[in-house]
Specification:
The complex is a heterodimer of chains A (726) and B (125). Chain A is α+β, with helices and mostly antiparallel strands and 726 residues long. Chain A has 18 helices and 43 strands. Among the domains of chain A are: 66 residues, Roll (Ubiquitin-like (UB roll)); 81 residues, FAD/NAD(P)-binding domain (3-Layer(bba) Sandwich), CATH 3.50.50.60; 148 residues, Probable tRNA modification gtpase trme, domain 1 (Gyrase A, domain 2, 2-Layer Sandwich), CATH 3.30.1360; 116 residues, 2-Layer Sandwich (Alpha-Beta Plaits), CATH 3.30.70; 85 residues, Aminomethyltransferase beta-barrel domains (Elongation Factor Tu (Ef-tu), domain 3, Beta Barrel). In chain A, strand 10 and strand 11 form a beta hairpin. The radius of gyration of chain A is 36 Å and the shape is elongated. Chain A starts with a strand and ends with a helix. With 125 residues, chain B is α+β, with helices and mostly antiparallel strands. In chain B, a hairpin with a 2-residue loop joins strand 7 and strand 8. The model of chain B has no long low-confidence stretch (mean pLDDT 93). Classes of the chains: A alpha+beta (726), B alpha+beta (125). Chains A and B meet through strand 6 and strand 32 of A and strand 5, helix 2 and helix 3 of B.
Chain lengths: 726, 125
Amino acid sequence: MELIVDGEAVGARDGDDLLTALVRAGKAPAGCLCFAGDCPNCLAVVDGVAYVRMCRTPVRPGLDIRPFPVSEPPPLPDAGRTEPVPYRNQHVDVVVVGAGAAGTAEAENLRAEGRRVVALDDQQGDEVLAVYPGPEVVVRSEGEIVRYFASEVVIATGSMEIQPVVPGSQLAGILTRRAAERLARAGVDLGRVVAVGTPPQGMECDLLAGELVRFEGEARVAAVVVRDESGEEVCRECDAAVVDLGTYPRDVLARMGVPGQVRVIGSAAERGTIPRCPDRGVVCPCAGVTVEDLDSVWERGFRELELMKRATLAGTGTCQGGVCGPYLRSFVADRGGDLQPSFTARPLARQMTMGEAAAATHWPPIHRTALDGLHRELGATMDRMGGWWRPWSYGDTEGEYWAVRRAVSLGDVSTLGKILVRGPDVVDFLEYIYPCRVGDLTPGRSRYALVLAESGGLLDDGLISRIDEHTFSLTFTTGGAGTAEAWLRDWARGRGADVRIMDRTHSLGAINVTGPQATELLGRAGLTEPLPFMRHTQTTIAGVPCRVFRLSFTGEVSYELHHPRSSSVDLWTRLMDLGADLGVRPHGLEALMALRLEKGHVIVGMDTEMDSTPRRLGMEWAVRMDKDFVGRAALARTDPLPLDRRLVGLTTDAPAPTEGSAVFLDGEIVGYVTSSGWSPVLGTAVMLAWVDLFDGSVPPIVVVDGRPARHVPIPFYDPEGARARA
Amino acid sequence: MPVPEPLVAWRAIAEPAALDAATWPSEAVVLRIAPDEVLVIGEPGFDIGDPYAIVEPEDGFCAVTMDRARLEAWLARTAEWTLPKGDRYFAQGSAAGLPVKVWVEGDRGLLITRASLAHDLEERL
């Protein structure tokens, strides 16, 4: 059969691996070849996939092979997007890596005990890429990625041959003893062979006794030089050189595993040969690290093996220390006197493609509200926010904005956290969770509430609504919804509170009906009794059972309709029909962000930091220090301290600066902008910004984006809140 | 490919002991998804002896009914946990990156996830 090597046809025999075929054709790559997958000297781009070890790849007709030295990165693949790499998970009792004598015997013994065993060996097409805690073993096998989940991993990977580190060891035509024996079995003629150490079986060679000093030659080895017992150098000309310098445990996978989950047997568990400390030469061919480099970092004080690895990058390359590992230990022992353990091994043990790396992973799912399809039908630009797909804009953000300010608009707020809490201890429990008063809420009333961390910083915010004596409905932000239930449950358990907690976030849809005509629209839809601000009721809206909350995030009259998720589309559609003559239209998040900014409402995590206390936020009114609550101790400790900075409102006549812009005073940075936007209704740019205080006061004029900005009170729009309460 | 359908169910949160002692309609499939929580597939009509129990109709899940062998083959490929053994079992965990609940009885299986992830489940089946 024929292979294509660097564009030229090269003959190969059935049963050859790629490297054997190349050596047979006189195209041996540079460096000592091990034919065992341990060294980095037979890499190639094979059919567009880089870092393929030719010694582990069987020949196939027509393969396109482009060998490259490890010292030079291969060309980037020019192939377009390929098909996903298939993967599967498999659950077994034991994974045995290595099908040599020790591995095979162990696998048979374990099977005899009735355990489900999988035996893996790269010679049989199963290339182990990594061992992870679990234990989990990731394998490349016949074009797919297999993840084995087991209770134990047995490493029986045997030993590898120590490579020479002497001047000239990067010449072509150098082989380890086992490699030479393999080529002999394949019938490859290497010409005049000189062997140092135990000679290979099945191959005629000239044995050269003594300590290896160097290889000589131009691109290919032409002579071997040793130092004999008398100390004299002896040189022998050759076409190929074979070295036997002892073996070392092939233990990369063993060192990758978690102790107790991985058992090492056979040669892989042996101590192995620590080679003589080299005088000169390339120790790590992957990173091009020489003995001189090791001396340099040693002199600079890097005396631990792990530190030498980091300082030189030796051991971090393609072969993961297969060549340099023994020599690094030898070097440190020679210079420092202690034989230090091998450095930590981390995945991967073999190179993998991006497709293989992605094979067993999934894009984190993004939740969709029941109205998702409808938003897309309406042409909304969807974006991912807080783990949900949400409509950013329906294509006319300004029109959406004005629908809220002048008419009526619908917003999909199904993503808000929604939790029911019930029990005999519910009031005491919630009094502790929230810094505001809870017990004085009567059924039918709601209250805006902060959620504080133990540090006193703002964790989240939302609405507390009392349903009946023992039941409360709580809302949280979209971003906080994912952890709200766990937060409540942790505190309930810790305090022994007798309460039941049910997360309804994914069960209920929620539509915000907002604008001056919102009351009119809901009246048409069935809300016959006026609902005062911060009240709620259970009723039927447009034929759908809803809990209706009267509140406001936009600054206009607003009603949040919480309803069964399965009714979201019906409810939305009917409200749009009923409000057609009122000018109803949906609004996306982009409009909502502008609306809430005009009211100065904070977005937790955007306008706040971990240490954003209510005092820094100007929200002391939401805190009652005459009771105990989460975060109270921290607030009590920090309240006596002078306030150092505040979240404040700024305006400028210039275009709205980029969020994150620095705030300057007299050329010094004194804060930064968290939210920024043009206010259509005010005709000015408005900002929320963290600003340092000077003598307890916010500077009246600061500079943002090179232009003056004025400190103004917030809310910017309708400071009395008359419109929301109308 | 099977398409996830809305799951008609009820959910109850109550004292674990009350759930242990509760009686359920014989036709209902009752999945104990947490010590203090059950998902009841089918009609309500159950009685939980906890005066503070929260019992609500549940719209938040979708499900795919599948041949058991096919379901278990999919789970074996995509889940990082071992499936229980037996003719009838309930399990829950991550599969193909999605939170799933699995109810198997005889040669049929029910694969449940959040309704908000129905699109992702359909893609990953």
